[in-house]
Specification:
This is histidine kinase. Keywords: ATP-binding, Kinase, Membrane, Nucleotide-binding, Phosphoprotein, Transferase, Transmembrane, Transmembrane helix, Two-component regulatory system. There is one protein chain. This protein is of the alpha+beta class. Helices cover 67% and strands 10% of the residues. The chain has ten helices and five strands, in the order ααααααααβαββαββ. β2 and β3 form a beta hairpin. The protein is rod-shaped and about 135 Å long.
C-alpha cells in the first residue's frame, strides 16, 4: 500500500506546485502590465502587445521546462533564470527551479544560476527591453536588484533547508538499515553458536550411548556363560541404545543441516535435575502437572536448557521479581513449558540472544516457542514433543 500511494502523493504534489507557480505567474504578469500602463506605457502599441505575447510564450515554456528540473537541475535553473529576467509569467517557475537546484547544496551551481538571473534583470532594466520601453534610472535598477537579491536569497535558503532535511532523512534511514543488518548478523552468529552448542551436547550423549552399545555387544560376543535371560537383557540394552543413538544422530544432523540455524564431557542435565536448578534460584514458583518419568532424555535435556535460559533471562531483565514456572502437557504426546515474570521497565532495544537459543532448541526437536513481551509481563511458552520425531 505504501509503494502504490507514494507515486500518487508525488503526482498530486507536483500538480499542486505547478498550479501554484502558474497562478503566481499570472498574478505577476497582471501586476506588471497594470503598473506599466499606470507609468505611461502605450498599451495600444504594437511593441507593447509583442512584449506581452513574448512574456506569455516564455512563461508557458517555463512551465513546461520546470517539470524537468530534477533530471537536469542546473540546466533548467539557468535557462529559467534567463526567462525569469524577461518574463513575469516565468518568474515563479524560475524560483521553483532555483529552490530545487539549491536542495543539492552545491554553492557553485547556486552562484551560477543566481548570477545569470541578476545579470539578466540588470540588462533588461538598463536596456529598456520591457513594457515601458525606456531604460530605467540606475537608482531604480539598483533597488530592483536589491529586492531580487533578497527574494533569491530566501529561495536558496528554503532549498538548502529542504536539501539538508532530505539528507538527514536519508542518513537516518541508512543508519537504521545498517543497525538492522548488524543485528541480523549478530542474531545469525548467535544462532550458529547455539546450534553448534546443541550439536555438541547431543554428540556427548551419542558417544555415551555408542559406548554402552559397544560394551554390551562385546559381552554378547565373548561371554559364553550368559543364560538366556541375561542374554535377552543384553540384547535389549543394545537395541535400546542403538535406537537412542540413531535418534541422537538424526537430531545432530537436523541441527547442523538447517541453514537458518564451552561444554564439559559429563552427561548433560535433563529435567530430572530440575530440582537442583530451582534450588539455586530464588523466587521461583514452580508447578509440575505432568509426569516426566517417560519423557525422552533428549527432550528432557532441551527442556532443561530452555527452563535454565528462561530463568536467566528473567533474572537479567527483572532482578528480584517473582518467576512462575509451569510444566504441563499430555504424557506421551507433548510437554508444555510456561515461564512468566513481571517487568517494570521492558527493554527498548532488540531482543537478546537467549531467546534465540530457546527458539533454536525448540525447533531442533520439532517444537515451538512463543515469546510475549507485554508492558507489565514477559512470558515464554514452549511446546515440545514427548519424544523426537
Amino acid at each position: 500500500m505504501t509503494t502504490s500511494s507514494s507515486p500518487r502523493r508525488s503526482l498530486w504534489g507536483e500538480t499542486g506546485r505547478l498550479a501554484a507557480v502558474t497562478a503566481a505567474g499570472v498574478l505577476f504578469l497582471v501586476i506588471n502590465v497594470g503598473f506599466s500602463i499606470d507609468l505611461g506605457a502605450d498599451a495600444d502599441s504594437l511593441r507593447f502587445g509583442g512584449l506581452v505575447a513574448l512574456d506569455l510564450a516564455m512563461g508557458v515554456a517555463a512551465l513546461v521546462v520546470v517539470l524537468f528540473r530534477r533530471r537536469a537541475p542546473l540546466v533548467v535553473a539557468v535557462a529559467l533564470a534567463l526567462c525569469g529576467a524577461v518574463s513575469s509569467l516565468a518568474a515563479p517557475a524560475a524560483l521553483l527551479a532555483l529552490a530545487s537546484l539549491a536542495t543539492r547544496r552545491r554553492p557553485g551551481e547556486i552562484a551560477l544560476a543566481v548570477s545569470v538571473w541578476i545579470a539578466g534583470v540588470a540588462a533588461v532594466g538598463l536596456s529598456g527591453f520591457d513594457l515601458l520601453g525606456r531604460p530605467a534610472p540606475l537608482g531604480e535598477v539598483a533597488l530592483l536588484l536589491a529586492i531580487l537579491v533578497v527574494v533569491l536569497a530566501a529561495t536558496v535558503a528554503v532549498g538548502v533547508s529542504i536539501g539538508a532535511r532530505r539528507a538527514l532523512v536519508v542518513s537516518l534511514r541508512e543508519r537504521a538499515l545498517l543497525v538492522e543488518e548488524e543485528q541480523r548478523l549478530r542474531e545469525a552468529a548467535a544462532r550458529d553458536h547455539e546450534r553448534t552448542r546443541i550439536a555438541r551436547e547431543m554428540h556427548d550423549v551419542l558417544a555415551h550411548r555408542l559406548s554402552l552399545t559397544a560394551m554390551h555387544a562385546s559381552a554378547l560376543r565373548y561371554r559364553d556363560d550368559l543364560d538366556d535371560l541375561e542374554r535377552a537383557e543384553a540384547v535389549e540394552t543394545v537395541h535400546e541404545n542403538a535406537r537412542g543413538a540413531l535418534g541422537e544422530l538424526r537430531g545432530i544432523l537436523a541441527v547442523v543441516r538447517d541453514p537458518d540455524a564451552a561444554d564439559a564431557d559429563r552427561p548433560q542435565p535433563t529435567l530430572a535435575d530440575l530440582d537442583e536448578l530451582l534450588a539455586a534460584e530464588s523466587g521461583v514458583d514452580a508447578r509440575i502437572d505432568v509426569a516426566l518419568t517417560t519423557l525422552d532424555p533428549a527432550i528432557g535435556r532441551h527442556a532443561y536448557r530452555i527452563v535454565q535460559e528462561c530463568l536467566t533471562n528473567a533474572r537479567r531483565h527483572a532482578p528480584g521479581a517473582p518467576v512462575t514456572l509451569h510444566l504441563a502437557g499430555v504424557e506421551g504426546k507433548r510437554l508444555e513449558i510456561d515461564v512468566a515474570n513481571p517487568v517494570s521497565n521492558p527493554p527498548s532495544g532488540p531482543r537478546g540472544f537467549g531467546l534465540v537459543g530457546i527458539e533454536e532448541r525448540a525447533r531442533a526437536v520439532g517444537g515451538t516457542a512463543v515469546v510475549t513481551a507485554g508492558p507489565a509481563e514477559h512470558r515464554v511458552h514452549v511446546v515440545l514433543p514427548w519424544s523426537p520425531a
